[in-house]
């Protein structure tokens, strides 16, 4: 509601904006029969900046369970990382795939 400042000027009351946290998305690597374990570890370290230990653990999840969660990101970052994985895999002639799914 406008406030009267005494000189005829009206100022709008401060309107509080409700800020909403951005939605989160998981990036998940999928197992296949052709991509090497070493390449998966390399991808995890290069694209997702995982340590050797974390990359190895995630790679084993992918290998043994069929999929492994790499991280949780905002939508744009998750899609960018998925595109980077697919691009690097194609360049190295591997069928490695990953999914982006809403948390």
Features:
protease, 40% helix, Ribosomal Protein L30, Chain: A, single chain, 3 helices, 24% strand, alpha+beta, three-stranded antiparallel β-sheet, peptidase activity
Can you offer a commentary on this structure?
Binds to the N-terminal domain of the chaperone ClpA. One of its GO terms (molecular function) is peptidase activity. Keywords: Hydrolase, Protease. This is ATP-dependent Clp protease adapter protein ClpS. One of its GO terms (biological process) is proteolysis. The chain has 103 residues and is an alpha+beta fold. The chain has one domain (24-102): Ribosomal Protein L30, Chain: A. The protein is built from 3 helices and 5 strands, in the order βββααβαβ. The protein has helices at 37-46, 52-65, 75-91, and strands at 3-4, 10-11, 24-30, 67-74, 97-102. A 3-stranded antiparallel sheet has the order 4-3-5. A two-stranded antiparallel ribbon has the order 1-2. Helix 1 crosses helix 2 (52-65). 21% of the residues are buried.
Low-confidence stretches: none
- Radius of gyration (Å): 23 Å
The amount of beta strand, in percent, is: 15-25%
Strand order of the largest sheet: 4-3-5
- Envelope shape: elongated
Task: State the separation between the terminal residues, measured CA to CA.
Answer: 39 Å
Structural class designation: alpha+beta
- Major β-sheet, in short? 3 strands, antiparallel
CATH topology category name: Ribosomal Protein L30, Chain: A
For the record, what is the CATH homologous superfamily label? Ribosomal protein L7/L12, C-terminal domain/Adaptor protein ClpS
SSE string: EEEHHEHE
CATH architecture: 2-Layer Sandwich
User: How many separate domains make up the residues?
Assistant: 1
